[in-house]
Amino acid sequence: MVVCHCLAVNDSTIRELLDSGALSVEEIGTRCGAGTECGSCVEQVRRLAVPQTFAIRSAVA
User: Fold this and answer.
1) Residue 61 CB partners (closer than 8 Å, separation 6+)
2) Looking at the 3D structure of the chain, how many domains does it have?
3) Measured between alpha carbons, how far is 57 from 29 in angstroms, rounded to an integer?
């Protein structure tokens, strides 16, 4: 599914970035551009990132 229509970034790309170590919406934006144009996809990027971030924080705690 396309998450960022401005730059045609899909959820698979975002999941790959999370799997490769991206830890925040900002880092995802830096790596692929999602959320850096009009900003309408930032909430969707955040929703994709939250489970990954939660798992990392739980493992560290």
Assistant:
1) none
2) 1
3) 21
Domain enclosing residue 53, as ranges? 2-60
C-alpha distance from residue 59 to each of 28, 32, 33, 55, 56 (Å): 21, 26, 28, 6, 5
How many Å separate Cα 35 from the centre of its chain? 9
Per-residue pLDDT of the chain (61 residues; tens, 9 = 90+): 999 999 999 999 999 999 999 989 999 999 999 999 999 999 999 999 887 655 555 555 5
In this structure, what token pair is assigned to residue 14?
A: 């975002």
Which CATH number characterizes residue 56's domain?
Answer: 1.10.10.1100
> What pLDDT score does 50 carry?
86
Query: Quick check: 7 and 32 in contact, CB under 8 A?
Result: yes
